[in-house]
Amino acid sequence: MYIDLLIQLKNAARAGKHSAKLRFTKMDHQVAEVLQKYGFVKNVEVKGRLPRRVMEIDLNPERPIEGVNFLSRPSLKRYAGYRGFRRHRKGRGILVLTTPKGILAAREAQKEKVGGQLLFEVW
Hints:
Blueprint: H1 2-14, E1 19-23, H2 26-37, E2 41-47, E3 54-59, E4 68-70, E5 79-80, E6 94-99, E7 102-105, H3 106-112, E8 116-122
Antiparallel strand pairs: 1-3, 2-3, 4-8, 5-8, 6-7, 6-8
C-alpha cells in the first residue's frame, strides 16, 4: 500500500541511497508518478513481469522526502471537496488525494474541480 511506499522512500533518502526497489501495485505506481511530477523522485521505472513486478525509483537528492503525514487510514477516512484544500508546509509540501479521476495532488484536483479522499501530505 502507499503507506509502505512513502516510509521506504523516506528511509532511503535519510540513509543516503540514490534509488529504491519496491513492489509494484497500481496505486503505488500512481502515487510515485505524482511524487515524480512534483520533484520528490527523479524517475519511476517498472521492471519484471507479474506477479514479481517491481518499481525502481530514483530519489532526488535536491528535494528529499523529509516527512509524511497520513490523513486517512483504514479506521478513519477523510474527504474534502475541491474548495477545501489549503497550502501545505508554506508551499513546500503537497497534499495527495484519490479522486474519480485517479490519484492527484491538491493543485490538480482544484484545477479539475474534483474532491475526494485525502491520503497524505508530503514535504
